[in-house]
Specification:
- By secondary structure, the protein is of the alpha+beta class.
- About 70% of the residues lie in helices and about 15% in strands.
- The chain has helices spanning about 30-115, 120-130; strands spanning about 5-15, 15-25.
- The chain has a two-stranded antiparallel ribbon with strand order 1-2.
Length: about 130
């Protein structure tokens, strides 16, 4: 009869090394030991199967949430682009009307004073910007 066997197991990943060592002794009832091992393995299998189901469900929920967030992000991006286009359009209209009003006021001022309209850099910039 043997005094005992040594069983060891090593796992290494990411710089971490795990080691297990067991000293095995002959069983007084191999049928009972086999039953206990199978019960342990069946329980572990059930727990792991439940965890796989739970993690799969969680993954599906996260995937669904991610798709919703992506769709919302695309909608917001489109809305922002539309808002920018609308805002810039209104700004250009306001700017153009201000330029027109400035031209009108300059013309009126020059007629009242009898002075020809000035042709300084500001006028050139005003006309350039409106084109």
């Amino acid at each position: 009869m043997q005094t005992g066997l040594l069983l060891s197991w090593t796992f290494e990943k990411g710089g971490i090394k795990l080691e297990w060592r067991w000293k095995l002794h002959p069983s007084s009832s191999s049928k009972e030991t086999t039953t206990e091992i199978l019960d342990f393995l069946m329980d572990a299998n059930i727990r792991l199967s439940e965890e796989v189901v739970w993690r799969t469900q969680e993954f599906e929920k996260l995937k669904e949430e991610t798709e919703k967030c992506l769709a919302q992000s695309e909608r917001l991006c489109l809305k922002r682009s539309e808002l920018e286009t609308e805002t810039y359009g209104k700004f250009v209209q306001v700017l153009s009307s201000k330029k027109d009003k400035l031209r009108e006021l300059r013309e009126r001022l020059s007629k009242e004073e009898g002075v020809p309209q000035s042709t300084n850099d500001e006028d050139a910039l005003t006309e350039e910007g409106s084109e």
